[in-house]
Amino acid sequence: MGRHEQREHIFKLLFREGFHPESERTQQLSLYFEDEDVLKGLTEKDRSYIEEKYRRIAERIPQIDGLLNEKTKGWDTTRMGRVDLAILRLAVYEILFDDDVPSGVAINEAVELAKEYGQDTSGGFVNAVLAKFVKAG
Questions:
Q1: How many domains does the chain fold into?
Q2: Helix %, strand %, coil % for the chain, to 5?
Q3: 69: domain CATH number?
């Protein structure tokens, strides 16, 4: 499984965050990996990578949301669509905290996810927000 597919799983897990309390995070993670469609083509190495990265991002959600709120005047995280927010959380983590992912790759992947899962304007919105993180870098 490639990084794009792994990133897509992480996005889906982050999307679920908005619907469940933090105390259910471990249970929700287990339930996600019980889904037969999720398990197709997923190796143990993939699952381990997805789980670990998801946990690292989830632990930083308050920090990431604070940074997003600073950069998006008039569009704080409470106003953003859940799809866009999950994508932004993943990409901001990759840009600021994951040395293995170049910023350009993080942005490109985020825009692709936004085009696939978001609304018509999601790709542009995600791109504009993430550009502010790279400039500030």
A1: 1
A2: 75, 0, 25
A3: 1.10.940.10
Q: Are 103 and 134 in contact (CB under 8 A)?
A: yes
For residue 89, give the nearest of 11, 7, 8, 3 by alpha carbon.
Answer: 11
Q: Residue 104: which domain range? A: 3-136
pLDDT per residue, tens digit, the chain (137 aa), is 899 999 999 999 999 988 888 888 889 888 888 887 888 888 999 999 999 999 999 999 999 999 999 999 888 898 999 999 999 999 999 999 999 999 999 999 999 999 999 999 999 999 999 999 986 54
pTM score of the predicted model: 0.93
Helix orientation angle between 61-71 and 44-59, rounded to the nearest 10 degrees: 60
Q: Helix (H, G, I), strand (E, B), or coil: what is residue 72?
A: coil
